[in-house]
Amino acid sequence: MPGFGLSMGYTLFYLSLLVLIPLAALCVKTGQLSWSTFWKTITGDFVMSAYRVSLQTSLAAALINSVLGLITAWVLVRYPFPGRRLLDSLVDFPFALPTAVAGLTFASLYANLPWIDNVKIGSSITWLWNWIGLRIGLAEMSYVTLSGLDQFRIILMLTFVSLPFVIRTVQPVLQDWDVEAEQAAHSLGAGRWRTFFKVVFPELYPAWLSGLALAFARSVGEYGSVIFITGNIPNQSEIVPVQIMSKLNQHLYPEATA
To answer: pTM score, two decimals?
Structure first.
């Protein structure tokens, strides 16, 4: 690679062209609004509801993938079985499939599931969300009541689109992991669970946490699939990207950027 000066110059140019300049343009566009209009735009009732729906369902999807993704990565690395390579390649399928197609497919599969409305899918999410709100001093982070079916659809869709992130971040660490440390723990009398949580997981934790954060970020920004699978009802099942698109369709560009 070239020296530091040339490499740093290229890095700054590349990041500026793709990240810094567009973000600056976003802020400039938002600056066309007065402070009162800006505050009213980002704190409206429908907008606040969309914040809660997006953050709660994204958190739920990320937590699901943080557990199931870790298990999947473990199976793909540790256990040889027929079709492992095919299964490993399928992990990247959500990256390749257009999200609109995924949304239509899931909507047709899970259009009418009345039994879900009787299942308290959001109860654990509600508790966790309120607990986080109390810890950071935001008591207004109250739960938006959704039907069980709406919750199920949104969380299921976000779990699908964010599936690869935890698996692909944990998998390389597992592949490079030296199993002799586990064997040493076993020889000293540690059981499987104790070995995993005391020896293996601390080494996986940074990658696992990165995958969790990536899955959450990916879920927050998802739009194409969710609009097909929910009713997009304001104050009930509308997510933040739908709010942005609605303002763009009304040619309210500064409000959309806000």
So the answer is: 0.80
